[in-house]
Amino acid sequence: MKTLYQAVVTKTSWITSSYLLLTLNVGVTVSVQAGQFAALQIPGVYLRRPFSIHDADGTTLSFLIKIVGKGTQKLAELKTGDKISVIYPLGNGFILSDKPAVLAGGGCGIAPLLLLAKQLKNKPTVILGGRTKADIVQLDAFAEYAEVKVTTEDGTLGTKGFVTAELTSLSQDTAVYACGPEPMLRALHKLAKEKKFELQLSLEAMMGCGIGACLGCVTDTKKDGHVCVCTEGPVFKAEELVW
Ligand SMILES: Cc1cc2nc3c(=O)[nH]c(=O)nc-3n(C[C@H](O)[C@H](O)[C@H](O)COP(=O)(O)OP(=O)(O)OC[C@H]3O[C@@H](n4cnc5c(N)ncnc54)[C@H](O)[C@@H]3O)c2cc1C
Ligand code: FES
């Protein structure tokens, strides 16, 4: 159940010039489903900001954060020992299938996939996609739990192209779990319809409250119409969404 915690920053480390790994100690062990997220109250920033839980181990939570604006910049200024208010676990995570798994992440969309790779019974394949080599992070962390493939749009690392380039030979016996920019998710949905593989997507919608109160994060679904991504998602089956 979602709860507010006063967490303590145990580590902040720059992975690249634009990606930060933030580690917090929340003081209690909470069961987290891969794909769930936390709302962090960043000092000096009005609204909480949502971040996928990158890893959860005992009382430790970690977040992979791409610095894009005021809030994420302020997060990067946190020091070991600082306190931060965290509400988690929020939303619904990925439903684990017994089928062979392929995890596809684009940019900071790779964040929820590390915990997912850890939670799956069988070793999955993870495809990390980015525009260029500098966008590909956490290779070693993923390699502990998955077979890792890389795609970059400019070909500076791995296969040249989009993550879909590594998915064209998939069969309907595969379950694909993905998170990333909207065009990537749209392309995956198209491919899933062609190849008939299962596809779950985590949507990184803009969010205000993160707890279902502001209606700032709605998405359109076939069965239930407009729903809040923060409470009904962020993970959805691709075929449930109106594209
Ligand atoms: C469920 C969920 C999980 C997320 N997980 C992660 C994660 O693990 N790691 C991570 O780095 N980011 C994640 N995000 C995105 C993250 O919440 C935003 O990047 C962050 O809130 C931006 O805050 P800011 O104050 O730095 O930027 P702002 O100053 O608020 O915005 C800066 C720029 O980023 C854009 N932006 C803000 N929020 C989003 C968003 N949700 N999607 C796309 N663009 C956005 C704005 O349009 C603006 O152009 C997640 C978002 C959601 C909804
Ligand atoms: S972010 Fe407020 S309802 Fe979802």
TrEMBL record:
Signal peptide: none annotated. Residues 2-96 form the FAD-binding FR-type domain. FAD binds at residues 49-52, 71-72. Its cofactor is [2Fe-2S] cluster; FAD. It comes from the Bacteria. Binds 1 [2Fe-2S] cluster per subunit. One of its GO terms (molecular function) is 2 iron, 2 sulfur cluster binding. Keywords: 2Fe-2S, Electron transport, FAD, Flavoprotein, Iron, Iron-sulfur, Metal-binding, Transport. [2Fe-2S] cluster binds at residues 209, 214, 217, 230. The keyword Transport applies. SUPFAM superfamilies: Ferredoxin reductase-like, C-terminal NADP-linked domain, Riboflavin synthase domain-like. Transmembrane segments: none annotated. GO terms for biological process: pyrimidine nucleotide biosynthetic process. Belongs to the PyrK family. This is Dihydroorotate dehydrogenase electron transfer subunit. The gene is pyrK.
